[in-house]
Specification:
CATH architecture of the largest domain: 2-Layer Sandwich
Structural class: alpha+beta
Protein name: DUF1269 domain-containing protein
Order of helices and strands: EHEHHHHEHE
CATH class of the largest domain: Alpha Beta
Strand order of the largest sheet: 2-3-1-4
Radius of gyration: 21 Å
Number of domains: 2
Organism: Roseateles asaccharophilus
Number of helices: 6
Keywords: Membrane, Transmembrane, Transmembrane helix
Helix content: 40-55%
Shape: elongated
Distance between the termini: 14 Å
Length: 168
């Protein structure tokens, strides 16, 4: 299990040095993500992708739940309307179809919506700072925080997220 920690770094040089130190501390690149304002140089950094910078996963989960509920309700209505011999099959089939359609359509919307988790960093990013998002094993949180605080006094610890999403 991992925890997600956030650090704000003042410039590209500091961000690059932080990336190198995390790699030397055996945090793989897969768990290190950087966010900067649009057009900012990201040379040598592992840039965050749409899974970290948007609400795609949250939207897809919501669409899945809402779509399956609406599909099941439609299946019940259809089963009564046609007096089906196996109403359970109709309800289950329409719930599954609704879940797929809901997840797909909601994820399209969510991929274009900025992440609610990153809203608090918008002003700092607009000022040219770099946001480090690193997913750290629970047993190494103190070690990594101490490493970054010791080697980067110019950086600011911005908190920890209690639950790291499974996909991003």
């Amino acid at each position: 299990m991992r925890k997600r920690i956030y650090w704000l770094l003042p410039d590209l040089g500091s961000a690059r040095r932080t990336m190198d130190e995390l790699l030397l501390a055996r945090i793989t690149e897969h768990y290190i993500h950087f966010v900067a304002r649009d057009g900012a140089p990201m040379d040598g950094l592992h840039a965050a992708n749409v899974l970290q910078t948007s609400d795609l996963v949250v939207a897809a989960q919501s669409g899945l739940l809402i779509g399956s509920g609406l599909g099941a309700a439609g299946g019940v209505a259809a089963a009564f309307a046609i007096s089906a011999a196996s109403p359970a099959g109709i309800v289950i089939g329409m719930a599954a179809g609704g879940a797929m359609l809901g997840a797909w359509s909601a994820s399209m919307i969510g991929s274009s919506t900025p992440s609610r988790r990153l809203r608090r960093f918008e002003a700092a990013l607009a000022d040219g700072q770099y946001l480090l998002i690193v997913d750290v094993p629970r047993g190494r949180i103190g070690e990594i925080e101490e490493l970054l605080a010791r080697t980067h006094p110019e950086a600011h610890f911005e908190g920890m997220e209690p639950n790291v999403p499974a996909f991003p």
